[in-house]
Amino acid sequence: MRYEIRIEGHLSETLAKAFPELGHVVMAGQTILYGPVVDEAHLYGLLARCRSLGLRVVEMRQLPE
Q1: Quick one: 46 exposed, middle or buried, by C-beta within 10 A (0-12, 13-18, 19+)?
Q2: pTM (two decimals)
Q3: What's the mean pLDDT in 41-55?
Q4: Residue 1 to residues 13, 21, 43: CA-CA distances in angstroms?
C-alpha cells in the first residue's frame, strides 16, 4: 500500500529525517509525505510519530498502486 500524508506547514530537513521510509515534498503551505506503508500498524506508527513531533495532519489517503 502507498499513502500520502499531508502535514500543515513546511517540515525542516531535520523533521523530515524522522520519516526515513517516506519521501517528502513541500507545496502550498503543506508538506506531503508519501511512500509505502507495510500494514495498519506501520500506518498508526507514522501517525503517532506525527503527533509526538507536534505535527498537524491535514489529510491522509491511500494512493493507487
Answers
A1: buried
A2: 0.90
A3: 96
A4: 25, 13, 10
Cell matching residue 45: 506508527
Across 14-42, b (16+ Cβ under 10 Å) vs e yields ebbeebeebebeeeeebbbbbbebeeeee
Collapsing DSSP states into helix, strand and coil, what is residue 43? helix
Return d(Cα 49, Cα 65) in angstroms, integer: 24
Q: Which three cell numbers stand for residue 25?
A: 515534498
User: Taking the CA atoms of the chain, what radius of gyration do you get in angstroms?
Assistant: 11
Amino acid 65: pLDDT: 80
Q: How is residue 58 written as a grid cell?
A: 491535514
